[in-house]
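Q&A log
Question type: sequence-to-structure
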Amino acid sequence: MRPALLRFALPVAAAAVLGGCLAALPHVALGPPSGHEMRPEAFFQGRTRGTGTLAVRGKTPAIVRVTGTGRTEPGGAFRLDQTIVHETGTPDRRSWTMHRDGATGYRATLTDAAGPVTGEVDGPVFRLRYKYSTWGLTMHQTLTLLPGDTVVQNEATVRFLGVPVARLSERIVRLDGPM
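Response status: OK
Response body:
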């Protein structure tokens, strides 16, 4: 890919991927175990709302707002449909379909991902990883369930060939009551 095109494509791709991540990605102090566990299929069941700041390398940070609706599908898969609204631009829509994979693992598909999504729960923390493109963009997300079980802090990083190019810090609120 030509350097001029790459300079344009990376911020655009990173902004698209980070906007509304369950994402999407690891700066929250965990402290001692709190007795509660992050289960995305429980937290995202029903309606959620997220507000975050997206910082793309070389651009002014922007506000991102996300609404989500989650439900269990026939056969046991969990589906989360999201609408992402950036400060400037039209809303984007995306969908996750998630399955448990063992005691703490998850596998998923995402309309924005270039391949499978993997996830792992460790107490109140849910970590996700996936490729965003076939030319080197990857997403790393850490979602931390806060005490009270109605708020998740989402920290996401998009990397290009291992180098961070964008970050999202988002607070997600469960609107349909406790899990």
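Response note: Confidence is low (pLDDT under 50) at residues 1-34.
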